[in-house]
């Protein structure tokens, strides 16, 4: 909820304000857009609003609600979203009186509290990452080739030319602590090898590796 105060009496049936809300203000490419327009997906809403007198409190009030939509494939949910809310008075510029004319009534010239006219506030994602809102993960990755081993302590794998048409790589990843957002796994391989996909058995167990992308010498999994 945001509030703005205006000194002066309402003009006519209410006091007009120009209202602007900007989402993800500090990002060149915003991660969210504002409803109710879900077609253009704009991160900014501008409109005119009218403050009307609340008989219970005697104050000028206007409430606006907006639905914020997160864009598809948004990976950064750790950085808070900065919103900027701005108000400006919607009124005619006062005309200076001619010499000898009475001064215009200041009741029709309200003053906007500039300290609240522009306000930036932040919204964070619910990440389930402890009281400090910092995700402290502990990732463990174990990888092995399904090939005969050789060398001291069986620490090397042996690939006989012409003996295998496929080389299988088994990767097991665990996270022992809090959520690991934006985690990526990279696998470098010789240019003579090409990635052809995951095994049928692994597909039935999990869809964890659906994000593999072959970049020639490196596989990337998001």
How would you characterize the overall build of this protein?
This protein has 222 residues and is mostly beta strands. The protein folds into two domains: 15-123, Sandwich (Immunoglobulin-like), CATH 2.60.40; 139-221, no CATH class. 5% of the residues lie in helices and 33% in strands. The protein is built from two helices and 16 strands. It has helices at 114-117, 200-205, and strands at 6-7, 15-23, 32-34, 44-53, 60-61, 68-70, 81-89, 111-112, 118-123, 139-145, 149-150, 156-157, 169-175, 185-188, 213-214, 218-221. The strands form six sheets. Strands 5-4-2-7-9 form a five-stranded antiparallel β-sheet. The chain has a three-stranded antiparallel β-sheet with strand order 14-16-15, with no helix packed on it. It has a two-stranded antiparallel sheet with strand order 1-8. A hairpin with a 6-residue loop joins strand 4 and strand 5 (60-61). The chain is rod-shaped, with a radius of gyration of 30 Å. GO terms for molecular function: integrin binding. Residues 129-208 form the Integrin alpha second immunoglobulin-like domain. It is a single-pass type I membrane protein. It is found in: Membrane. One of its GO terms (cellular component) is integrin complex.
Q: Determine the CATH topology of the largest domain.
A: Immunoglobulin-like
CATH class of the largest domain: Mainly Beta
Quaternary structure of the protein: single chain
Q: Over the alpha carbons, how many angstroms does the gyration radius reach?
A: 30 Å
Q: Give me the CATH superfamily of the largest domain.
A: Integrin domains. Chain A, domain 2
Run of helices and strands: EEEEEEEEHEEEEEEHEE
Q: Roughly what is the average pLDDT, rounded to an integer? A: 78
Give the strand content. Answer: 25-35%
CATH architecture of the largest domain: Sandwich
What is the overall number of helices?
Answer: 2
Overall body shape: rod-shaped
- Counted beta strands: 16
Q: Unreliable segments (pLDDT under 50, ≥5 consecutive)?
A: 7-11
**In the residues, how many domains can be counted?**
2
Structural class per helix/strand content?
mainly beta
Residue share in helix: under 10%
* Main sheet record: 5 strands, antiparallel
Spatial order of the strands forming the largest sheet? 5-4-2-7-9
Taking the alpha carbons of the first and last residues, their distance comes to 36 Å
Domain Integrin alpha second immunoglobulin-like: 129-208
Main location: membrane
InterPro entries: Integrin_alpha_Ig-like_1, Integrin_alpha_Ig-like_2, Integrin_dom_sf
Keywords: Glycoprotein, Integrin, Membrane
